[in-house]
């Protein structure tokens, strides 16, 4: 009986080893393709907030990880630097609106060094369907209202919803969501505008 069990254990062990080798081989063969697809998806997302043709593989390498939880409300926020002829043209930065109606709203924004917003997209949220979800481009084009608006200072009242005296439309029955997004974009633009040293800081993201 013991001999029979030992034989079966050896067979199972050999089969497991073969399976591990097969899985490792498949992972090794598919890893480059997976990495390439991930890079293409990231470039596609970056292109949504930048001018046509701006997103490139070089953009992914010129990246900073910012640790500014009091501003960006993320422990480590990735920031890509878009350059034209060697000069910084815009940051593409991950930021968070922590005060959405149903919690955090994760955003991606392209902002020039002088605080002009080129584009904003929602990465994830838990806002109420039919009300706060107008921050999704597939539901509405409200996010496009940020384009070419410049944050001039912390006292810039234009960067607010109309209910608060600003220039951004609020949603019918849902003011909290747009108010949170506008505030997050304003706060992020001010931070970038006030820290010009970020333009030449050494890239510190993990290699793609």
Automatic annotation (TrEMBL):
Its main location: membrane. Pfam families: FMN_bind (PF04205). It comes from the Bacteria. Transmembrane segments: none annotated. Keywords: Cell inner membrane, Cell membrane, Electron transport, Flavoprotein, FMN, Membrane, Phosphoprotein, Signal, Translocase, Transmembrane, Transmembrane helix, Transport. It is a single-pass membrane protein. The modification FMN phosphoryl threonine is found at residue 175. It is found in: Cell inner membrane. It is an enzyme of class 7 (translocase). Its EC number is 7.-.-.-. InterPro entries: FMN-bd (IPR007329), Ion_transpt_RnfG/RsxG (IPR010209). GO terms for biological process: electron transport chain. Residues 100-192 form the FMN-binding domain. Coiled coil: none annotated. Its cofactor is FMN. GO terms for molecular function: electron transfer activity; FMN binding. Residues 1-31 form the signal peptide. GO terms for cellular component: plasma membrane. Belongs to the RnfG family. Part of a membrane-bound complex that couples electron transfer with translocation of ions across the membrane. The complex is composed of six subunits: RnfA, RnfB, RnfC, RnfD, RnfE and RnfG. This is Ion-translocating oxidoreductase complex subunit G. It comes from Rheinheimera riviphila. The gene is rsxG.
């Amino acid at each position: 009986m013991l001999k029979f069990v030992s034989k079966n254990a050896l067979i199972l062990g050999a089969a497991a080893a073969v399976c591990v080798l097969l899985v490792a081989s498949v992972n090794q063969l598919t890893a480059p393709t997976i990495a390439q697809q991930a890079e293409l998806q990231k470039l596609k997302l970056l292109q949504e907030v930048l001018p046509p043709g701006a997103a490139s593989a070089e953009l992914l390498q010129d990246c900073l990880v910012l640790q500014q939880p009091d501003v960006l409300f993320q422990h480590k926020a990735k920031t890509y630097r878009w350059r034209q002829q060697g000069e910084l043209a815009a940051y593409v930065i991950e930021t968070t609106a922590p005060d959405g109606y149903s919690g955090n709203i994760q955003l991606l924004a392209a902002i020039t060094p002088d605080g002009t917003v080129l584009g904003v997209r929602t990465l994830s949220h838990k806002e109420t369907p039919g009300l706060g979800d107008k921050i999704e481009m597939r539901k509405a084009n409200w996010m496009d209202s940020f384009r070419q608006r410049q944050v001039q200072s912390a006292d810039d009242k234009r960067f607010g919803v109309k209910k608060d005296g600003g220039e951004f439309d609020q949603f019918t029955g849902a003011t909290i969501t747009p108010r949170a997004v506008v505030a997050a974009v304003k706060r992020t633009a001010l931070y970038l505008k006030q820290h010009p040293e970020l333009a030449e800081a050494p890239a510190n993201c993990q290699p793609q």
